[in-house]
Write a structure and sequence with these properties.
alpha/beta; 15 strands
Amino acid sequence: MLKVLKFGGSSLADGSQFAKVKAIVESDSSREVVVVSAPGKRSSDDNKITDLLYLVHAHIRYGVAYDNILGMIRDRFGSIRKECGLKTDIESMIDETFVGVDKKTPVDYIVSRGECFSAMLMAEYLGYKFVDAADWLCFEYNGKVNTEKSEKKLRELKNAYEKIVTPGFYGALPNGEIHVFPRGGSDITGALAAAYLDADIYENWTDVSGILMVDPRIVKDPKSIARVTYDELRELSYMGASVLHEDTVFPVRIKDIPVNIRNTNAPEDPGTIIRENFDDELEEETERFITGIAGKRNFSIINIYKSRIGEEKLGLLRQVLEVFARYDIPVEQIPSGVDSFSVVFPSESIRIRKHELMHELSEFEGIDNCALTEGISLIAIVGRQMAYRTGISGKIFRTLGDNRINIRTIEQGADEINIMIGVFDEDFERAIRVLYDSFAK
């Protein structure tokens, strides 16, 4: 068995976190490939190393001294080295790296050094081989990964060294210049490594025990999700849930390699397993039928009424959507009635053009009324079990009604794993708590 592990910044914040990583890796001999981020915050008022490196680049760009920032970076890595009893002279490496840095130095090179230095220290700590991501992760000039070339190089390096540590977040262009993914790109690096090596599992270690069923800022100590499909993950992520974005694990999804979200600070917790689908269902999943609940505030609804609209509805809807397209307003939902339809969209998208938009729509021939309702929140109730249960919508609506929460919009996806409702913003958090207490516990 082969496991590829990725550790996020919170898992590498200091020497004590490095020690936790070492204990995790050494507890399972199949954990042979480790991908690391740059050290994250040690406390709420601390700095991420990557943020400091971006700040260094800004200072260089504008000709401002950055010695104090570089000193913070040097001290941070030096502290990790000392706490872990390592010999790598990381402080000298940092100094040497920035000797030749000037305004012409690409920002990608500067900000990638956090992951590079982190991987060097971790490799010595584990007794693994340090493999620079620039030596195997190959980008084309358009920013796309050259999969065939990258896979070949990584397989060769893995065969040569067996157990390796490699930095996340960056790779190299054809000319050798460093190129980085967007922020959070270490997740992509880990997924690519797992896919290229045909790993049996990809473990993504962070500071939470898996994906939570609901926002912990709204519900105290919510349960974690034991298993979730990619389709469910996409629904929850789209509606604002703080989860591993499904785009970052796309490489392992293609090969159906399970993804396990684990907690570095609580390694005994099983975390969340993500797969395309599951052949069986756990008893708790069948009984609960809801996988997760997520939502977003600040939407608006435009309701358009026309008596006996009949066959004209399609043409009128097309005209309305053409106006939305011209104003570059994204559409979330289009609920429809016999003589009416509504368009749901983010309120911010019409903030400075609200009156202009309403005036144009109200001028459409034959419209009896065009009304705008603001202050709407959308809540998604997601669960693959909902497609096989009767009366789910009724139970959800009855629960909200019993708690005097007014539902403004209702929509269900074609795959029946998602029911989305609209409530007033002032009912948003209470609605989520009510739904969680009723169906998720």
